[in-house]
Predict the structure.
Amino acid sequence: MRCTQALIFCLLVGLVQGQRDCSQNVRWGDLLEDLNILSRSISIDCGSHDDKTSLCDAQKMLNMLQLNARAVDSVIQRILNIYKKHHNSSKFVERLLHTLRNLECASEFLEGNLEPVTECFEKLETFLEIKKSHRQCALEIVTANTREILQRMQNRTVRKR
């Protein structure tokens, strides 16, 4: 009986360790570097279009999430969807796809509410639709919001190590 319990314990510890390692493999610096190539900040001309209430509150979203591989995967997937649809940066899209491939263990995480991620990125999509007559400004603003999300995720995952 003890042998069985010890084996189950070891398997669970190994599974948890594998999951943690999977989400720790995200190369945040590379993602942020490629994103910075698209836009470093919001230009003066676009400042008047920056409506914080219409955008995702990155801190609030991340505070509501259990940050594990599944949550990271979900956020990266949603960012990928936005940039594939609204921006023609193949380098950043490729970096996002590479990141998703490195998060193969995400499906092992069943727990966690991803509704904050959905709400956040629906706001960004809606913002892009509303501001489509000012497409370039909208993309600059969404890129700045995306950068904040990635930076906050980077800070939280680095602290977990």
About this structure: Helices lie at 2-24, 28-38, 58-63, 69-86, 90-101, 115-130, 135-160. The radius of gyration is 18 Å.
